[in-house]
UniProtKB/TrEMBL annotation:
PROSITE patterns: HTH_MARR_2 (PS50995). Residues 11-147 form the HTH marR-type domain. SMART domains: HTH_MARR. Transmembrane segments: none annotated. GO terms for biological process: response to stress. The lineage of its organism: Bacteria, Bacillati, Actinomycetota, Actinomycetes, Micrococcales. This is MarR family transcriptional regulator. Gene3D superfamilies: Winged helix-like DNA-binding domain superfamily/Winged helix DNA-binding domain.
Amino acid sequence: MTDDNWLSEREGKAWRGFLALRAVLDLQIGRDLASDSELSEADYHVLATLSAAEQGRLRLTELGNGMLWSTSRTAHQVSRMQRRGLVRKTGLPGNSRAAVIMLTEAGASAIRAAAPLHVASVRRHLIDHLTVDQLDAIAEAGEAVVARYRSGPDRVRDRESEG
């Protein structure tokens, strides 16, 4: 391995800062979410994505793609949430292989109750500590990195299909 492959001092500092930021936010916001609403971050992500969708429903693959999750991960999460009555899975008429995931009344109620507390947590642990320029930089960096995973050859795929 040549020195060209190593991170520069600036790159290393950015990477370590990102790792620390992610660890702190995952811990604090996840803890708040669980105590405020008894939802996991994955539960919240699914419910929020479905609640933003037309009629509170999406095909399983659309749901996963929207969250940058593999189909397998999405299906497992949906199964857990279905057992708790937060979502319902139905078939797509005319396509026996497609599944449609729908927000139930219990799921809609859970996201309505959790959202204000979750936003307050995000503000308390991140937003309120940053300047407008820092918020813009985070948004721009996120968009730049995620764009390549939304489509094309680097799109998020199931591990099973990568072999």
